[in-house]
Amino acid sequence: MDLDVFVTTHRTEWDRLDHLLHRGRSLTGAEADELVDLYQRTAAHLSMLRSSAPDPSLTARLTQLVARARSTVTGTRRASWRDAARFLAAGFPAAVYRSRHWWIPTAVLSTLLAAVIGWWIGTHPEVQAAIGAPEDLRSLTRPGGEYETYYSSHPAASFAAQVWTNNAQAAAMCLVLGAFLCVPVLWILFVNVLNLGVGIGLMSAAGRLDTFLGLVLPHGLLELTAVFVAAGTGLRLGWTVIDPGPRTRRAALAQQGRAAIGMAVGLALVLFVSGVIEGFVTPSGLPTWGRIAIGLAAELVFLAYVYVLGGRAARAGETGDLDTAERSAELPSAA
């Protein structure tokens, strides 16, 4: 492509489009039709320029021009309560359902690794000695020790809020940092699994594993599921960078990234529920079976939500991404 000839041929159209955009709402019917036609032509010009003769300054100008024209043509749309309801009823559970091939293996492998770490620590006194001095370990694991008092060390409401904030941040980090080739996600996941494995091992060595599980399971089932979903989604996002498939890397990453942002919002709500359970149910005076039953019920409700509502929405074509009208247009690229 001869760039100078290309610019000379089409500059008049671009200038005319820019003029019409500055006119705003004062356009006549004929001028509005002309604006739509010039928008489509300029979008095609931008695609040709990107694929055949990339010029940074010209590409930037046309990109801005096309974006302004698209905004004018399609108009702006405000989010409503109906959008939030649709997101919770279809978008979020469908996104979780569609990513199940990532977060289910993540959950299984992480749980097995935590169990192996717990067994290794619990059956090897030398490993326990490397973790801490005997008196420090006793203060953690004894009846009324730090593992037990941790859940009742603060008022329930403030403790639930703190737990929710920390877990939501960890989930968001998994989702956002997944784009860095999965490595940060694997590290965050390993730290969580290691902490769980250490607790299992130390309490098992003290003969109090049942007490530990009675404290962890009520909130931990739902909490860990949310973390595994976030980690699996982050890993999927990282793999998209490595292998975008038939789409361009930019388009594939944009789609997965938008879905991940929506996932972060949905998981924040899930972690809010687990935080409430951890703040009010875990340290309560309910019998162990009652506390675990509440946690199990919350977990089953979430799985039913994902597999029933999410599965139905996914089969209907829902992806968890924005609607076509709400996301940036993907320009065709030359083969």
Task: Characterise the protein shown here.
- With 335 residues, the protein is an all-alpha fold.
- It has helices spanning 3-23, 29-52, 56-74, 81-98, 100-123, 125-131, 134-141, 146-149, 156-177, 183-205, 209-242, 249-281, 288-315.
- Residues 324-335 have low confidence and may be disordered.
Quickly list its features.
335 residues; mainly alpha; 13 helices; 79% helix
Q: What letter string, H or E per element, gives the SSE order?
A: HHHHHHHHHHHHH
- Low-pLDDT runs of 5+ residues are 324-335
Gyration radius, to the nearest Å?
Answer: 27 Å
Helix content: over 70%
What gap, in angstroms, lies between the N and C termini?
A: 15 Å
Contiguous helical run count: 13
| Average pLDDT score | 84
Oligomeric state, counting identical vs distinct chains: single chain
- Net shape: elongated
Strand content: under 5%
The main β sheet shows up as:
none
Instruction: Tell me the structural class.
Output: mainly alpha
Count of β-strands:
0
Short description:
The chain is 79% helix and 0% strand. The chain has helices at 3-23, 29-52, 56-74, 81-98, 100-123, 125-131, 134-141, 146-149, 156-177, 183-205, 209-242, 249-281, 288-315.
SSE order and pairing:
Elements (H helix, E strand, L loop, with lengths): L2 H21 L5 H24 L3 H19 L6 H18 L1 H24 L1 H7 L2 H8 L4 H4 L6 H22 L5 H23 L3 H34 L6 H33 L6 H28 L20
